[in-house]
Amino acid sequence: MDDWQKNIINNMFARLISDTNCDEIFLSKFLTENTITDHEYNRLVRLPHQAHLGAPSQNSEFYKIIRTRVGAFRQLFLYLKETNQSGLADLLSELTRKNYPEKYNYLVNNGQDEQLATSLSINCDGNRLSSCVQPSPVDEENRIRNHYKFSGNGKRFILPINIVHFKNAIHNRENARIDMSNIKSVFPKLGYEVFPEDVDEKLYYSREDILLQINDFKDACRLFKAESCILFIGSHGMEDKIYSSEGNFVRINKHIVQQFYHENFPCMKGKPKIIIIQACRNFEDGDAYFTLADNDDDSSTKSEGVEENDQIKEGAISDTVIIHSQVPGLPSSRNDQVGSWLVHYITKVFEEKAENTSVMNMLREVRDKLNEHNRNPAGQIPEIRDLGYKDFRLPCQNLTK
Question: Distance from CA of residue 250 to its chain's centroid?
Answer without folding.
Answer: 19
